[in-house]
């Protein structure tokens, strides 16, 4: 999965939510797949706001990973209030080799977690994975642009600052969710020394 993030062509990660959708993706030749937290949550009757019971999340990931022989990365929202070590342990136990981790603060009353706090969580997760013998692909989601009408210079600066901190902490790639302006995407990519998910 890591090597495909550095190929000559962009890596397309179709999002799935159950074994049937995952098999459809695999049958169409995609070399990896990703779970969608929104789709998984909705299929289980929950909102996409870090409120799903972890047991149910990892049961879905395990069914998907166990049914296919291609790498799976899981959207784990903000981590379901699990410690980084427990999050990684459960991810690996489910058979996935990568995950998204967002910096929205769903439980503390802030819009976003402090970037330094999120960087510490990323570093702890990567360390836990290495101790377990699997250098997971961690996609750090940067939520600065969510709910904003345009990528102002102030927002761009904060998104780039966060993304660089997360990469320094060990993130393999970053995901500035909802950034859709082509020029802003190009500027963001130029400023980031790692793969960028769009």
Keywords, please?
single chain, 198 residues, alpha/beta, six-stranded parallel sheet, 7 helices
Characterise this structure.
The protein is of the alpha/beta class and 198 residues long. Helices cover 43% and strands 12% of the residues. The protein contains seven helices and six strands. It has a six-stranded parallel β-sheet with strand order 1-2-3-4-5-6. α4 links the parallel β3 and β4. α3 runs parallel beside α4, α4 crosses α5 and α5 packs parallel to α6. The protein is globular.
Task: Give the quaternary arrangement of the chains.
Answer: single chain
N to C succession of SSEs: EHEHHEHEHEHEH
Counting helices, strands and paired strands, the structural category is alpha/beta
Number of strands: 6
How many helices in DSSP terms?
7
Strand content: 5-15%
Largest sheet: 6 strands, parallel
Q: Please tell me the overall pLDDT.
A: 97
First CA to last CA: what distance? 17 Å
CA-based shape:
globular
State Rg.
Answer: 16 Å
Helix residue percentage = 40-55%
Short description:
The chain has 198 residues and is α/β, with parallel strands linked by helices.
Topology (SSEs and partners):
Elements (H helix, E strand, L loop, with lengths): L14 E2 L2 H9 L5 E3 L1 H8 L9 H14 L4 E4 L8 H11 L3 E5 L12 H17 L5 E6 L10 H16 L4 E4 L5 H10 L7
């Amino acid at each position: 999965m890591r090597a495909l993030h550095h190929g000559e062509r962009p890596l397309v990660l179709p999002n799935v939510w159950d074994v049937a959708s995952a098999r459809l993706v695999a049958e169409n030749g995609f070399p990896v797949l990703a779970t969608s937290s929104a789709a998984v949550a909705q299929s289980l009757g929950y909102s996409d706001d870090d409120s799903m019971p972890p047991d149910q999340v990892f049961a879905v990931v395990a069914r998907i990973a166990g049914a296919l022989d291609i790498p799976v990365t899981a959207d784990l929202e903000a981590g379901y209030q699990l410690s980084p070590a427990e999050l990684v342990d459960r991810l690996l136990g489910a058979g996935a080799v990568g995950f998204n981790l967002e910096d929205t603060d769903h439980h503390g009353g802030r819009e976003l977690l402090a970037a330094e706090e999120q960087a510490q969580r990323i570093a702890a997760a990567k360390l836990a994975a290495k101790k377990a013998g699997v250098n997971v692909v961690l996609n750090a989601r940067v939520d600065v642009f969510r709910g904003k009408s345009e990528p102002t210079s102030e927002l761009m600066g904060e998104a780039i600052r966060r993304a660089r901190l997360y990469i320094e902490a060990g993130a393999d790639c970053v995901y500035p969710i909802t950034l859709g302006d082509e020029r802003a995407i190009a500027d963001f990519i130029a400023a980031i020394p790692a793969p960028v998910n769009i």
